[in-house]
Every structure is written in structure tokens, then in C-alpha cells.
Design goal:
The complex is a heterodimer of chains A (564) and B (163). By secondary structure, chain A is mainly α. Chain A has one domain: Cytochrome C Oxidase, Chain A. Chain A contains 15 helices and three strands. The longest helix of chain A is centred in the C-terminal third of the chain and has 37 residues. The relative contact order of chain A is 0.13. Chain B folds into two domains: 35 residues; 111 residues, Immunoglobulin-like (Sandwich), CATH 2.60.40. Classes of the chains: A mainly alpha (564), B alpha+beta (163).
Chain lengths: 564, 163
């Protein structure tokens, strides 16, 4: 039973009797809680980095810039994202598949969660005691302590077990609902976990078979180029693992919030399947400027990289289409009248809407980076860091804020008050402003040549390097704004969890409905073996020959180094 | 799968321009030979690389009428040589490698942007068209002294001896 009341902005905020069963509620809340704690720590590290790099503060001798940078990357890019995403996916899978998880999925979810938490703590400990200042890409032959690598391996294997929980739940639902098309949310969750498991299998191979034995001293040398290649086999799919849950929210949840419909049930599924295909055989575009890989294979992977433009264009059309139909339903006139009818006063919509706008710019920067030749003008400059702060840290994270503002009260059975909603909008504005300052300036100063991942340096007072310093101040201002927005978010999360008034009729878990005239998705879209097979085939085409080459013509390998 | 007419138009324009874009990149690469730095040439053990030619004697060597070769090693946290003098307009072939961890060789405001991976030699050819003192630096994190790793390329005008 759903009734609606006049809500935020022009949108309606329906209340509902739906509530998660206690075990599901707890499982999801534990994911979110740990993720937010990690977000807090990671952003603090980021703030001190921006200040140090601008030469505004000197860090205490016990805490190095690169140590903070490693913590920032590991905590935010690996831990926060993975655990938040899995929590969100579990919530949607439970909601759209009979309102509850099957018992086996709950058990797998908890095992995965505990492994990920233990793994994260181990890795963080190794970083804090300065035994793992290797940054989140941990490029050999920089050698961290075994604790760091074991921690990362636990994090990854834990996430696979969580993925198995999603597959189990999906499989059980399909068995009970023969012949029915699966809920879009659950379909997308399965696609994301397939993509994630395929890609992270290869970073696990790197960590378990190359780095752990070498870090323990069981083998003397490591093949550096092979380890970098295995990392980037995973590394670019990782960014789609971050992005696709935001796409889920944009595709599935937002249509409900704006009062529109999901335009098609088939095309969003096709979009996600294309992401499975084109997010893995593309890692060489991170290695364009390094030796040991033949140009032909680099170019081939550039072509495959650019193929993700196809699902991105499908998404853009679909989302704007949904907005337009929703606006026209509310009486919008003319070609662009619907733009004014969107619920900008609703934080559940506003934050992800800003995210979408920023993503257009972020995506364009990505095309520059992956352009075979043009990459040389910006490779390893701050342009790159600017790029993923615009895509991940702006678009994805703003969407996660937009999710949290209703997901927390749904779970805590408390009211999303108009005050919290307003605070959510202010928080999103501060975050977006901070990120635009920070990542926009990183793009500019990167074009002027400032390298990424570098502590404060004037490079012997060279005039080119001195010219970068004023930009560093702007980036530090961005960092300060982001810290304020983060503190505001932590307060909001705490308030919505523990303080806001209790209620029996919580805010609705928004799940969009598919447009009545939409066609049923063809069966082939749900035949996973076909898509997994194609994904493996594409990876073999893109990677088999160069990897065999690397192994056959490998140099003697590198000894471990700990230059920190 | 049915796709609305406008969506089909939108996708056709998008995919069409993507194909044109990729063809242009391909022509630049394989027709005109503009590739990112690359080399499949192998080296020996990175720790003993300075015993054998060419890396036993890093430096700048003239190899032709207007051609030079720069043999360079990188290591924690410096380069050899750290100062390179080359004439304006000459073809400069860089041959560089690392003796320990992964380093970078980057000259801001040029396309010289190389990854130096231990065990491999990175090659790249560049012609400076502006005289002056260019900064080069390491742009791949290599340890606590990473931000200090740098050098200078002095491009002089052979017609004007005062530079």
C-alpha cells in the first residue's frame, strides 16, 4: 500500500509499508556503516594531501605524503566503493525479488562482508605502520609487506563471495518464476558482479601468484610488465564496477523519483551486457607509454576502449527520454519545457542529476586519455587524477549520496525530514563545487605539465614548475570544501540513522516501472553463458598474444624495493 | 529489439563519428607512424645493466649530421645524465631504462612522456623546436624522493653561440 504526500521540490514522496526483514536490514546497514567510516578516513587523508602538495603544511615525520596517498587510494577507490556498492546491490536485489533475500544469500553476504572488513583492516594497518607505501596500484617492484597483499586478497575474495550471494538469490528467484523476465535491478546487479569477478580474477592472480610469494621471499624476482598488465586487466574494469551501480540508480530508481517511466526493459539490459564485453579487454590504454607491448595490441585495445561509447550513448538517450516524458506528463510545453519540471528540490534527484551533468565532461576527458597518441600529452600528469575525480569522485560519489539519503531512513525506519532533504541539497552543492574546483584545476594544471602522485616540489625552482603552484592553492580550497561536505554527510547519515523521528511508514524504496509500450526483452539477453563466453573470447583476442609474448621474452625480473 | 526512431538516429550519428575518429587514429598510427613510446628490445638484468653497452656509458652521442642519441639510465632518485645539451632542430633519439623500480621520463609541454620499466628499454624520437632550458622529471611514483627526481635538457641554437 502506497500513499503519496506533497514532497520536496515538485516530486512526490510516497510512503510505504514496505520494510526489509530484520536480517537483510542488518546486513545492508553494516555495509553502509563501514563504507561511510572508510569514506571519512579516506577524505581526511585527501585533505592533508592537497595542503601538503601546495606547500601550505608540513606533515609530521611519522606520516609521509605517499603514505597518505596510499591510504586515500586504497580506502576510497578499493574499500569504500566495493563495500558500499555491494550493500546497495543487496538492498535492490532484496527489494525487487520478493522483498527479501533467500537465506543462502544472507549467509554468503555476511561471509563476504566479514572477509572484506578483515582484509581492509589488514591492508590499512600495513599502510599505517609504513610497510606498504606502494599506492593503490601497488606497482612492482615496489614491495609492500605480505599483510598488505593478504589484506587485498581477502577483500577481493570476500567480494566474490558476496557476488555468489547475489547469483544465488537471482538463481533461486528465476527457478521460482519460470518464464518471467527478471527485475531490471537484479539483472543489473548480476551483470555488475559478473564483470567484477571476471576482472578481479586477474588482479587476484597477480597478488596471489606473483606478489605474495615474492613479498614472502619465496621467489626472488617478479616480472614487472606482466604484473602491470594483470593489474590493468582488472584496473579499467574497476572503474566500470564503480560507475555501473550509479547507472543502476539512474536507470531503475530515478524514473520513479521524477515520476517517469523506464523507457525500455531491453535496452538497459543490453547496455549492461555491452559494459561486460567492453570494460575488460581494454587495460593497455593505461600502458600506452610503456615498453614491452607491441603497438598493434595497444591500438586494438584503444578501439575496444572506445566501444564503451555505444552503451554510454544508449544511456544518455534513455535517461533524457525518461526525464522528458516525466516533464511532459506534468504539463511541460515546447521542446525544452520539461527541463523546468524536474524535481530539483528533491535531494534524491538533485545530487545524481548534478552527477550526470558532470559525467558528460568527465567522459570527454576519458576520450582524450584513451586516444592512442593524445595520451602522451597528459599521461601521468594531474589531468589523469582530475579525470577520475570528475567521474568517480564526482559523478559516482554524488549518486551514492543521493542513494544514501533515502536508503538510510528506509533501513532505520525513520523520517526523511524536509530539513534533512534541504541539507542533502546543500551538501551536494558543496561537494560538487569542491570537486569542480579540485578536478577542474587538476585537468588544467595537468595540461600545463604538473605530474600526478607527487609531493610538494618546485623542481629546483624551474619556472615551469613554479607556474603550477598557484593552481595547487585552488586544489587545496577544493579539498577543504570537500571535507566540509563530507562532515555534513557524516552528520546527515548519523541523524537519519539514530536521531530523526521514528515512523512505521517509511519513505518508499523507489523502483521505476517500465513504459507500457516497451517490448519484452529478448531471451538471449538473459542467457548469461553467451555473454560470459563472449567476454572471455574478447579478452583472449585482446590479451592472449601480448601476454604470451611477455612471458616468452621476459627480462630476468626485478628484486623487491622499499624506497620509503 | 525495437529502438525508437530518434534513438536510432542518435546512435547512428554517435557510432558513425566514433568510427571516423578511430580511423583517424589508425591512419595517424599506422599510416604516418605516430605511436606512443614503445620498444620490444630486451635488456639484461636491471641491476647489472650499466656493465654492458650502451648503458655502460650514458650520455649524448651524435649519430648523424643532425641526429643525436641520448642514452639514459634512471634510478632511485636520479638520472644519468642529469643534464643534456642538444642543438635546436636536431632529431633526438632517446633510449632509456631503469636500474631499479619503475620510473618516468617526462618533459612538460612536449610529447616526451616515457615509462621506464626495469628490464626494458624505452625508445622515443623527438625534435625540439624551441631553445631554452627544459625541465625533465620522474612522473611515476618511485619512493619518498620521487618529487626530487629531475634534470634539464638544454636546447641551444647552433647559429647563435651566445645561448
Amino acid at each position: 500500500m502506497v500513499n503519496t504526500k506533497r514532497g520536496f521540490g515538485s516530486s512526490l514522496v510516497p510512503l510505504s509499508d514496505f520494510s526489509f526483514e530484520e536480517p537483510d536490514r542488518k546486513l545492508i546497514l553494516y555495509h553502509l556503516g563501514f563504507a561511510f567510516f572508510v569514506l571519512f578516513l579516506g577524505i581526511l587523508a585527501g585533505l592533508f594531501q592537497t595542503l601538503q602538495r601546495a606547500g601550505l603544511i608540513t606533515l609530521p615525520v611519522q606520516l609521509g605524503y605517499y603514505q597518505l596517498l596510499t591510504a586515500h587510494g586504497v580506502l576510497l577507490a578499493l574499500v569504500f566503493t566495493t563495500i558500499f556498492i555491494i550493500g546497495f546491490l543487496y538492498s535492490g536485489v532484496a527489494k525487487t525479488m520478493d522483498g527479501r533475500l533467500v537465506p543462502a544469500a544472507r549467509v554468503l553476504g555476511w561471509i563476504g562482508y566479514i572477509m572484506m572488513v578483515i582484509g581492509s583492516i589488514m591492508a590499512t594497518y600495513a599502510i599505517l605502520v609504513n610497510e606498504a607505501t606502494v599506492l593503490y596500484t601497488f606497482y612492482a617492484p615496489l614491495k609492500a609487506s605480505p599483510t598488505f597483499y593478504f589484506g587485498l586478497a581477502l577483500l577481493v575474495v570476500g567480494s566474490w563471495i558476496s557476488g555468489a550471494g547475489i547469483f544465488t538469490n537471482y538463481g533461486s528467484w528465476r527457478k521460482r518464476n519460470k518464464g518471467k523476465e527478471s527485475p531490471l535491478f537484479a539483472f543489473m546487479a548480476v551483470a555488475i558482479m559478473i564483470l567484477w569477478i571476471h576482472a578481479s580474477l586477474f588482479v587476484a592472480i597477480e597478488v596471489v601468484f606473483q606478489l605474495i610469494p615474492w613479498s614472502l621471499g619465496l621467489v626472488e624476482r617478479v616480472d614487472v610488465t606482466l604484473s602491470r598488465t594483470l593489474f590493468w586487466y582488472f584496473g579499467h574494469a574497476l572503474v566500470y564496477f564503480w560507475l555501473l551501480p550509479a547507472y543502476v540508480y539512474w536507470y531503475v530508481n530515478i524514473p520513479k523519483i521524477v515520476g517517469g517511466k523506464i523507457l525500455s526493459s531491453a535496452l538497459p539490459r543490453l547496455t549492461f551486457l555491452l559494459f561486460i564485453l567492453f570494460s575488460i579487454p581494454v587495460g593497455f590504454h593505461h600502458q600506452l607509454n610503456e615498453p614491452g607491448i607491441e603497438s598493434f595490441w595497444k591500438y586494438l585495445q584503444v578501439v575496444l576502449t572506445m566501444a564503451v561509447i555505444v552503451p554510454s550513448l544508449l544511456t544518455a538517450f534513455s535517461l533524457i527520454g525518461t526525464f522528458e516524458l516525466a516533464g511532459r506528463e506534468k504539463g511541460a510545453k515546447g521542446l525544452f519545457g520539461w527541463v523546468k519540471k524536474l524535481p530539483y528540490g528533491d535531494a534524491r534527484f538533485f545530487a545524481p542529476f548534478v552527477a550526470m551533468v558532470i559525467f558528460i565532461v568527465g567522459g570527454a576527458g576519458g576520450v582524450v586519455l584513451a586516444s592512442y597518441q593524445m595520451n602522451s600529452t597528459v599521461h601521468n600528469t594531474w589531468f589523469v587524477t582530475g579525470h577520475f575525480h570528475m567521474t568517480l569522485a564526482s559523478s559516482v560519489v554524488l549518486t551514492f549520496f543521493g542513494i544514501s539519503i533515502w536508503l538510510i531512513p528506509v533501513l532505520s525506519k525513520r523520517k526523511l525530514t524536509p530539513f534533512m532533504n534541504r541539507l542533502g541539497i546543500i551538501q551536494a552543492i558543496i561537494w560538487a563545487a569542491g570537486m569542480v574546483l579540485l578536478s577542474g584545476t587538476m585537468h588544467i594544471v595537468g595540461l600545463l605539465g604538473a605530474p600526478r602522485r607527487s609531493s610538494f616540489s618546485t623542481y629546483g625552482d624551474h619556472e615551469v614548475a613554479l607556474g603550477w603552484i598557484p593552481y595547487y592553492y585552488v586544489i587545496a580550497v577544493g579539498g577543504a570544501l570537500l571535507t566540509i561536505a563530507m562532515l555534513l554527510f557524516v552528520y546527515m547519515a548519523f541523524h537519519l540513522m539514530f536521531i530523526a523521528p521514528r515512523t512505521d511508514r517509511v519513505i518508499e524504496y523507489p523502483i521505476g516501472e517500465v513504459y507500457e509500450k516497451a517490448q519484452r526483452p529478448p531471451k538471449i539477453l538473459e542467457r548469461w553463458s553467451v555473454w560470459v563466453g563472449l567476454s572471455i573470447l574478447l579478452s583472449i583476442i585482446a590479451y592472449a598474444v601480448p601476454i604470451i609474448d611477455m612471458i616468452q621474452h621476459s627480462p630476468p625480473g626485478s628484486l623487491p624495493y622499499e624506497p620509503w | 529489439m525495437d529502438m525508437p526512431r530518434y534513438e536510432r538516429i542518435w546512435m547512428n550519428i554517435g557510432i558513425g563519428s566514433l568510427i571516423i575518429f578511430l580511423i583517424i587514429l589508425g591512419i595517424l598510427a599506422f599510416g604516418m607512424g605516430i605511436h606512443p613510446p614503445d620498444s620490444l628490445e630486451q635488456t639484461a638484468n636491471p641491476e647489472t645493466i650499466d656493465i654492458y653497452p650502451p648503458f655502460d656509458q650514458p650520455g649524448v652521442y651524435q649519430t648523424g649530421p643532425n641526429e643525436y642519441e641520448v642514452i639514459m639510465t634512471s634510478f632511485i632518485f636520479s638520472y644519468e645524465p642529469r643534464e643534456i645539451r642538444v642543438p635546436l632542430g636536431a632529431k633526438i633519439h632517446f633510449k632509456a631504462t631503469s636500474k631499479d623500480v619503475v620510473h618516468g621520463l617526462y618533459v612538460p609541454n612536449t610529447n616526451i612522456n616515457l615509462m621506464l620499466v626495469p628490464g626494458h628499454v624505452t625508445e622515443y624520437t623527438y625534435t625540439f623546436d624551441e631553445p631554452g632550458e627544459h625541465l625533465f622529471l620522474c612522473h611515476e611514483y618511485c619512493g619518498t624522493g620521487h618529487q626530487l627526481m629531475q634534470g634539464r635538457i638544454i636546447v641551444y641554437d647552433p647559429e647563435n653561440t651566445s645561448t
